[in-house]
Write the structure tokens for this entry.
Amino acid sequence: EVQLVESGGGLVQAGGSLRLSCAASGGTVDDYSIGWFRQVPGKEREGVSVSDSSEGSTYYADFVKGRFTISRDSAKNTVYLQMNSLKPDDTAIYYCTQLGSGTWGQGTQVTVSS
């Protein structure tokens, strides 16, 4: 299976933007459906967005629709999550994963201040 490493998190004010990266190694990211998830300590991990490899479709949780965009860069073997109009409620650790692999990385912390 492909190995994925998240990066790009940080501290941003409400209304700001961040772009998260999910860099793949050991495989071609275009061959896999990739999902972004997030988790706040003490709460369950929740799905944010999915980029489907078979149909090229993208999916978003209702709470990020219109604000977040998932995309792929085949040349860089990377999947991105562009996050705009960030809210304090978006504060979480964000993870990317190959759907169905059950494998999770260390994630990247996103903190949105009010």
